[in-house]
Structure prediction request, 217 residues.
Amino acid sequence: MIITIRLFAGLREALNQNSLSLELAEDATVGTALNQLAELHPSLPLTGLAYAINRQYVTLEATLKPNDELALIPPVSGG
Amino acid sequence: MQAFLVTETVLQPEALRALVVDPGHGAIVLFEGVARNNFAGRATAFLEYEAYPEMAEQQLALLGQQAQAQFGIGKVSIHHRIGVLQIGETAVLIAIGSAHRGAAFAAVAWLMDQIKLVVPIWKCEHWADGSQEWVGQR
Prediction:
């Protein structure tokens, strides 16, 4: 299945793109997706992040479905 | 005018006030978070904010509902600016209508703390020396 990953702030700058597509096995979790992303882009700083699937915060164990939007959320600093 | 908004345009306090005013309420608290010329003492030239806008607006609305339930306030509106902000420009604007002032003051303080924890918005400090840095507080 294919999912979309959204990148923001330092992550977006590290890859010079704000989203990318990732092909994953069925029943992949957020953790699986991150491992795969780390293999593709070893320089990407993937520590200290929060995660959202389709705009809802989730944990690393959450399961992905086809066409989900997985956002990698660095420490926020609004306000 | 949306009550919970992430926008690149200049924030308008009067527009938010109009959204929360109520004849039965004796208090409106307006809070503005403003771009400051330093961060922990280091000189800032200007700020840049980035958001995950769809999720940020959803999170702001959720915080508004939680504040209403927790503090018994009336209407709430929160707008957050993104893009480049000069020093002195307003980054976040919160308006709360309430029967009495105490609940509104408590709610606005709580909302600002929550915004800094859970709303997917990021601030980039463009330092006076020309370098830049995404700051995060988690």
